[in-house]
Amino acid sequence: MVNEIGTTALPERLEPEVETRADAVVLRVRRDGRTVLDGVRLGIRVGGVDLDVGSVLLRSRRRDVTGEWTAWSGKATGTHRYAHRETVHELRHASGLEWQIHVRAGADGVAVRYVLARLEGHGRLDADRTRLTFDADARVWALDYQTWYETPRFGADVAS
Prior knowledge:
- The structure is a single chain.
- This protein is mainly beta and about 160 residues long.
- The protein has a single domain (about 15-155), classed as Distorted Sandwich (Beta-galactosidase, Chain A, domain 5).
- Helices cover about 0% and strands about 55% of the residues.
- The protein has strands at about 15-20, 25-30, 35-40, 45, 50, 55-70, 80-95, 100-105, 110-115, 125-130, 140, 155.
- The strands form four sheets. Strands 6-7-8-9 form a four-stranded antiparallel β-sheet, with no helix packed on it.
- The radius of gyration is 18 Å and the shape is globular.
C-alpha cells in the first residue's frame, strides 16, 4: 500500500491477538472486526519441553516494519514496498525458559516466528506444535510439491 507521498502505509485491517492459557497459547485473527481465524495453537517443543503448555506472558511490544526490496528477474521484477505491524510476545515457561512469539500482520496475511533469544549452550527443537483448524466448509489454495514456487495453485475444500 503506497500513499500519495510515496511512503508505505501500514495495514489496519488484520488484527492478530495472542492469548496465553494454562494449557495452550492461542492466536486469533480479525479482519475489519470479524474473526477470520480462531483457535490457532502456537508453540514448539524444545529439549522435550512443550513451551506452549504452562507459559505466562511477560510483556508484548509492537513496532512497525517498512522497507523495500528489488527483484531483478522473474515475473515481478522491480522494486516492491512492504509494511507490516509486528508484535513480539515474550513468555516464560514454568521451567524458567524464556521464549518469544513474533507475529507480523501485513496487508494480505499473518506470519508467526518462534524465538529462543536467551537459550544458552545447545538446544534441540523436537517439534513445531502449531495447529490450524478450519471450518468444514473452508477452502484452501495449495500447490503440489515443487522445487520452485511459481506454479499454479488449485482450490480444494477442507472437507474433501
